[in-house]
Write a structure and sequence with these properties.
Oligomer: single chain
Number of strands: 2
Largest sheet: 2 strands, antiparallel
Radius of gyration: 20 Å
Shape: globular
Helix content: over 70%
Strand order of the largest sheet: 1-2
Strand content: under 5%
């Protein structure tokens, strides 16, 4: 038992080391390459072009990549825990569809041009919030959260939002269609520092809050009835964690667009590595999600340089391949 605990702590330390290495790689890679030997010199000369690129472009993008990746992975592991379903991820509940529909309505109406691009994240979050509200209200059964009904409601709302989005695309201009499609592919190019700080503080805040429910999540693995016998307020736990995970996902989608598979693949990978104890799984998923999206962002910026791939496309390809590999291996992490 002590050896296993040491292994899990060591795995978290290893994740942190890889996260630091990936962060340095992200800061040094791009159209203007900066070697690690040049880094001390660049940091000491604030009037240089390299310093401007580093501090004004790469550092904000790095922070946003970490916050979004960590948040999506954290939301995924929470939702999989309360639904006790390995296929649940943040976008299964229709949150991405609602956010996309909100942004599409703003773009097609032309409101974004008159009120500024800052309105797009607000519209995306509003669409995600409406979806969360509908899933929560319609998924309630006899004053208690019916997790199966909530899941099915989210899937149906996702289909409805996707159909409405296709309708808007069919009646929009070529320019509006391009803007909508580009947004739905996901992007970490966020020039507004206030939104980046909001995303970073939101991710860390929810991460700290969810650790208060680690014991409850472990109890829920046994089933709702067993968790109640262990003294867990199941109804309150499910409600609070659902709202936290959904709002955090809505914040990610509203700021960075749709970046899929992070909330599905990383929790699976971390569960296989450290087991299903949420006292360690939450931290592993948080760090692993941030690491995964930072690496994908670097690849998106450098694979076809000077052009750039949408990071959502790369996470979809990479995450899909990883998930297939995980499924092809024997055993199930959910049995641990």
């Amino acid at each position: 038992m002590k050896v296993f605990k040491l292994y899990r702590v060591g795995f978290l330390v290893l994740l942190l080391v890889f996260l630091i290495a990936a962060s340095v790689w992200s800061l040094l890679s791009g159209d203007i390459n900066i070697s690690w030997k040049q880094l001390p010199y660049v940091l000491q000369h604030s009037d240089s072009m390299e310093y401007s690129v580093l501090m004004n472009l790469r550092v904000p993008r790095l922070l946003l990549a970490f916050a979004v990746g960590a948040s999506l992975s954290l939301s995924g592991v929470i939702l999989q825990g309360i639904y006790r379903n390995p296929l649940v991820e943040p976008f299964t509940l229709g949150i991405s569809g609602g956010a996309s529909l909100g942004v599409a309505l703003i773009i097609v109406s032309g409101t974004a041009l008159s009120l500024g691009s800052f309105l797009l994240p607000v519209a995306g979050f509003a669409g995600a919030f409406v979806t969360i509200f509908l899933v929560y209200v319609l998924g309630m059964g006899k004053s208690a959260a019916n997790i199966n009904r909530m899941l099915l409601t989210g899937v149906m709302i996702s289909f409805v939002c996707s159909s409405l989005l296709m309708f808007l695309l069919s009646i929009s201009t070529t320019e509006d269609m391009h803007n909508i499609i580009f947004w739905t592919m996901g992007s970490l190019e966020q020039p507004d520092g206030r939104l980046i700080r909001l995303m970073l503080f939101g991710s860390v805040g929810v991460f700290l809050l969810t650790h208060l429910f680690a014991h409850a999540l472990n109890a829920l693995r046994l089933g709702e009835d067993e968790a109640i016998h262990l003294g867990i307020n199941v109804k309150l736990t499910i409600r609070v964690l659902f709202v936290l995970a959904s709002l955090l996902t809505g914040l990610c989608v509203s700021i960075a667009g749709i970046i899929g598979f992070v909330g599905l693949v990383i929790p699976h990978l971390m569960r296989r590595a450290v087991g299903s104890d949420y006292r360690i799984l939450l931290s592993a998923s948080f760090l692993g999600g941030g690491l995964f999206l930072i690496v994908c962002d670097v690849l998106a910026r450098t694979l076809i340089a000077p052009n750039e791939l949408p990071v959502g496309v790369l996470t979809g390809i990479t995450g899909g391949i990883l998930f297939i590999i995980l499924l092809s291996r024997k055993g199930s992490a959910w049995k641990k």
